[in-house]
Amino acid sequence: MNDMTAEVVVLNDEQGGYYLLSRDVVEQARIPADRQVELQRALTGDSENDVSGFITPTPIPEARTFQVLGAFHLQTSFIKTVTPVGVAGFEGGGGLGRS
User: Fold this and answer.
1) Is residue 95 part of a domain?
2) Which of 13, 21, 31, 40 is geometrically suited to a Cys-Cys bond with 64, CB 3.0 to 4.6 A?
């Protein structure tokens, strides 16, 4: 059996959940170079449209804090057994499902 590997980014959250993101998914989420400064300004409130004194941030109850564990090469047969079907850019089998 020819078992290939795939590059994945592994995240985990404060509830103990683990997430595998394929390289394709990560690349699709890449911010173009010409928009990165704009994003940095939006995240820090440092822009000409700064409304930090006029809007009170509201916590999002469903929001999670993610920790990046790293990028790894994993066997695709393993990835398919632990990822739910159609999630994170893999044709998974749902072996472990979500936590």
Assistant:
1) no
2) 13
| 89 assigned to some structural domain | no
Say if 87 falls within a structural domain: no
Sheet holding 18-22, edge to edge: 18-22, 5-13, 66-75
Structure tokens at 14: 């404060």
* Cβ–Cβ < 8 Å for 90, 22: yes
DSSP 28-59: HTPPPGGGHHHHHHHHHT-STT--TTT-----
pLDDT, one tens digit per residue, over 57-66 is 566 667 778 8
What is the value of pTM for the model shown? 0.63
Q: What letter does residue 84 receive in the DSSP assignment?
A: P
